[in-house]
């Protein structure tokens, strides 16, 4: 194999998504929450947890690719439909900063303009207009105020997320690190809105007697 062939093979491998039973279960579970929300007219959310570098972003991108934005003719005008979008919760997280990230994802021309109430009203309007069914929110540990000896939930932002999802009937998935998932249980109302948890573990080779998640791919 010459150098060019090796580079081309490396490029193909780099674009591959190596799935596992956990990956497939999480993908199906998150998209199922979106479908159930639409059917039941009640927001059903989920958590996707994993250590850094274990596939959270890859899974999010896979969901986005299967649900691309498109244009739609309606009542004599063309509108952009955004079935799913992805944001990273900023640090520090405030209602205005999170709302601004969502408005930007929906192509709002001035995502940070207006008061918090005005931004929220505009966001709810755009979510319905764009027919959004699922919001992927990464870095959910930014929903906590982290001190040297404590981690305190940002009640204002969490309450705002509950209000938006309730008023728009949209499923949302919080994505982040495992150690922060139990802290969400502090707020029973928030925990109730994210009843399903999906975890991605490290891929391993295993052995011929006990094949791991990478064994089939390497074979």
Question: Mind sketching the topology for me?
Answer:
Elements: H1 3-14, H2 21-40, E1 46-49, H3 56-66, E2 70-74, E3 77-81, E4 84-88, H4 95-105, H5 116-129, E5 134-138, E6 144-146, E7 151-153, H6 155-168, E8 171-176, H7 188-193, E9 196-199, H8 215-218
Parallel strand pairs: 1-8, 1-9, 4-5, 5-8
Antiparallel strand pairs: 2-3, 6-7
Describe the model:
- This protein has helices at 3-14, 21-40, 56-66, 95-105, 116-129, 155-168, 188-193, 215-218; strands at 46-49, 70-74, 77-81, 84-88, 134-138, 144-146, 151-153, 171-176, 196-199.
- The chain is an alpha/beta fold and 219 residues long.
- The protein is globular.
Brief rundown of the structure:
42% of the residues lie in helices and 18% in strands.
Number of strands: 9
* CATH architectural group: 3-Layer(aba) Sandwich
Q: What kind of assembly state do the chains in view correspond to?
A: single chain
**Span between termini:** 19 Å
CATH domain class name: Alpha Beta
Query: How many distinct helices?
Result: 8
What key attributes describe this structure?
five-stranded parallel beta sheet; 18% strand; alpha/beta; globular; Rossmann fold; 219 residues
